[in-house]
Design goal:
The complex is a heterodimer. By secondary structure, chain A is an alpha/beta fold. In chain A, about 35% of the residues lie in helices and about 15% in strands. Chain A has ten helices and eight strands. Chain A has an eight-stranded mixed sheet, sandwiched between helices. The model of chain B has no long low-confidence stretch (mean pLDDT about 95). The radius of gyration of chain B is 19 Å and the shape is globular. Chain B is about 45% helix and about 15% strand. In chain B, helix 6 links the parallel strand 7 and strand 8. In chain B, the strands form two sheets. In chain B, strands 1, 2, 3, 4, 7, 8, 9, 10 and 11 form a nine-stranded parallel sheet that branches. The relative contact order of chain B is 0.14. Chain B is α/β, with parallel strands linked by helices. The chains are: A alpha/beta, B alpha/beta. At the A-B interface, helix 2 and helix 4 of A face helix 6 and helix 7 of B.
């Protein structure tokens, strides 16, 4: 990895439980945050003021315009409503999962052998997609940050923090995500190409459990993903 | 502060986990509601849930039966999945039970945890948003009809109604209709905008984290011009009371484990972990499992964060022995309630 980029501002698309938790965690990490969703401007403004205080509510196009990274956290069945043009060239973390209870059967997703993030990537053709933040519960994002995975105590060694996996085909996107997860208070573990992200989709062992970095690498290896170093 | 219970029905199990009869589950639920009324519990919510292990599929029928056998307890649904039902029928069933009870019946309309009702009644989960929004509007229209009982409504999810009578009318003019939600910001705002009371189902995490949502709800209601008694908050959570904390943990855990194991198979939930259970069952956690002092302190503490007016617990799932359910209900009404009142009065 070359010079480390320094993230200063991100955008979160979606103000559900995942999106608002990501926005709060990002502000805790010292980042400026724009939030946007498909609701009316007044609703988003009030949600931002009360649920994600400090985040700036704006339209999706404005929110993503001048940020270093975008987190996509809308219900998966709505991902096609996201305009690909505004995300052209952007680093986009796909934090979405297929939830049958929320999304319904989604035959075009379940009938496709690829990971959901690859399907999202073909819709958002110009974006540099990363699969990340999908395999941790929204409340765990705030509760498990900086926590020692074995003892539950805070502020122990970096390697004993809870590990979060990420997968992408783009080196810059990998570096940015690595920094983001680290600043969120987790141990980033690179899982390789975007297609590898299928190893931590809902229903997998990685999705259903929590690991430190060593455990995460072992779990990825069990799923057929070799040990890797980002970029 | 009102205290109460809710249940989806809990089919009895043999020692090896084999399910008994669903009719026994319904009878046990009926007995539990009557028991709750006799001991002075404030509220009981029923289903709807459509599975062999939790068979309380018809809250309206259950509440009508309970209405005739109880004197004081408030009876409601927890929740009515109105998206996959006919709101006029739901209203009529609950208004009928309301008449039998002398005005003690409420409806909670929500998504519910039971997506089984979508294929069962021939609906597509993909239409969820529109079904819920329009059917909630129709349910409210039926409830808000004037003295002529005439309802007018039109939408896309069913045929319009043009000035037709919807009877019987509720004893107190209108039934309280709550919005039941798992705690999303948009649902909180919808309830506030409509001026409806909101019921939060909190099944994990730290319940105090719902404070900003409650604030969002109250501020949306205020800015829409809604005030007074309609703007109130209740909390539905898991829990069980026993004479000692250890007994409560020991009694609750097998059912919690069994329920989670069935969700591992059905919906791909993670395997249940004892440490997770214990973390949730203490302090700021979401499981109100304990002795009367412990549970009362934790409910009063949450009240400091949410200002809720009703706290009710799902106690029976995964095959909880009926005697443990009945004892928990009795302790909640007779031991926890006075402690909560003392704690809140001292604040």
């Amino acid at each position: 990895m070359g010079d480390k980029p320094v993230l200063t501002k991100i955008a979160v698309l979606g103000v559900g439980r995942v999106g608002t938790a990501v926005a709060r965690t990002a502000m805790q990490a010292g980042l400026a945050v724009n939030v946007a969703a498909s609701k009316g401007a007044e609703e988003i403004a009030l949600i931002a003021e009360i649920i994600t205080p400090g985040a700036v509510a704006m339209t999706a196009a404005d929110a993503v315009a001048d940020v270093d990274l975008v987190v996509l956290a809308v219900p998966l069945h709505k991902f096609r409503t996201v305009d690909p043009r505004m995300l052209d060239g952007k680093i986009v973390i796909d934090a979405m999962n297929h939830w049958h209870d929320v999304d319904g059967p989604l035959e075009d997703v379940t009938g496709d052998p690829r990971s959901t993030s690859e399907i999202v990537a073909s819709h958002l053709a110009g974006a540099r997609i990363v699969k990340a933040l999908n395999h941790i519960g929204y409340h765990e994002l705030e509760e498990d940050a900086r926590r020692d995975i074995a003892s539950g105590a805070e502020g122990r060694g970096l390697e004993s923090r809870r590990a979060l996996a990420y997968a992408t085909d783009d080196a810059d996107a990998a570096a940015a995500t690595h920094e983001l997860l680290d600043r969120f208070g987790f141990e980033p573990v690179f899982a390789g190409a975007l297609a590898s992200g299928i190893a931590f989709e809902s229903g997998t062992d990685i999705f259903n459990d929590s690991f430190d970095a060593v455990g995460m690498r072992a779990a990825l290896a069990d799923a057929g993903i070799p040990a890797l170093v980002a970029a | 502060m009102q205290l109460g219970a809710y249940s989806f029905g809990d089919t009895p199990r043999d020692a090896d986990g084999t399910l008994g009869s669903t009719s026994d589950a319904i009878r046990n639920l009926f007995d539990a509601i009557v028991h709750a009324d006799q001991h002075g519990l404030d509220y009981f919510g029923v289903g709807e849930h459509h599975t062999l292990d939790m068979p309380a599929s018809s809250p309206g029928a259950m509440i009508a039966a309970a209405a005739g056998a109880t004197k004081n307890i408030i009876l409601g649904s927890g929740v009515s999945v109105i998206s996959t039902d006919d709101p006029i029928r739901v209203f009529q069933q609950f208004a009928t039970a309301d008449a039998v009870s002398g005005g003690r019946v409420e409806i909670t309309a929500g998504r519910g945890s039971s997506v089984e009702s979508f294929p069962l009644f021939g609906y597509d989960l993909a239409d969820y948003d529109r079904l819920y929004e329009e059917k909630l509007e129709l349910l409210r229209a039926a409830n808000d009809a004037g003295s002529d009982a005439r309802v007018t409504w039109s939408g896309t999810v069913r045929a319009p109604i043009d000035g037709l009578e919807v009877v019987p009318r509720p004893v107190r003019g209108r039934l309280p209709i709550w919005v039941g939600t798992g705690g999303s910001a948009p649902s909180s705002m919808r309830a506030g905008r409509l001026g409806m009371p909101v019921s939060y189902g909190i099944i994990g995490g730290a319940p105090a984290r719902f404070a900003p949502l409650v604030d969002l709800y109250r501020r949306t209601a205020a800015s829409a011009g809604h005030a007074g008694d309609e703007i109130r908050v209740s909390v539905a959570a898991l829990g069980l009371i026993a004479p000692t904390k250890q007994e409560a943990l020991d009694r609750f855990y097998p059912g919690w484990h069994a329920m989670n194991m069935s969700m591992v198979e059905k919906r791909g939930w993670p395997a249940p972990q004892t440490e997770h259970f214990l973390a949730q069952a203490h302090g700021a956690g979401a499981y109100y499992v304990g002795d009367p002092d412990d549970v009362a302190e934790r409910i009063a503490d949450l009240h400091g964060h949410l200002g809720h007016m009703r706290h009710f617990l799902q106690m029976d799932f995964g095959g909880l022995p009926q005697e443990h359910l009945l004892e928990s209900i009795e302790l909640l009404a007779t031991e926890v309630k006075p402690r909560v009142e003392r704690l809140l009065a001292a604040k």
